[in-house]
Amino acid sequence: MTVELPDDLVDALRTAERVVVLTGAGISAESGVPTFREAQTGLWKQYDPRELATPQAFARNPRLVWEWYQWRRELIDKAKPNPAHYALVDLEQYIPSFLLVTQNIDGFHWAAGSRDMIELHGNIARTKCYDEGVLVDTWDDDIGVVPPHCPHCGGHLRPDVVWFGEGISSHLLDTAVEATASSDLFLCIGTSAVVAPAGSFPLVAKRNGVRVAEINPEQTAVSMMADWSLREKAAVVLPALMQRLGLSSNVLGGTSEA
Ligand code: OAD
Question: Which of 85, 109, 121, 156 is catalytic?
Answer without folding.
Answer: 121
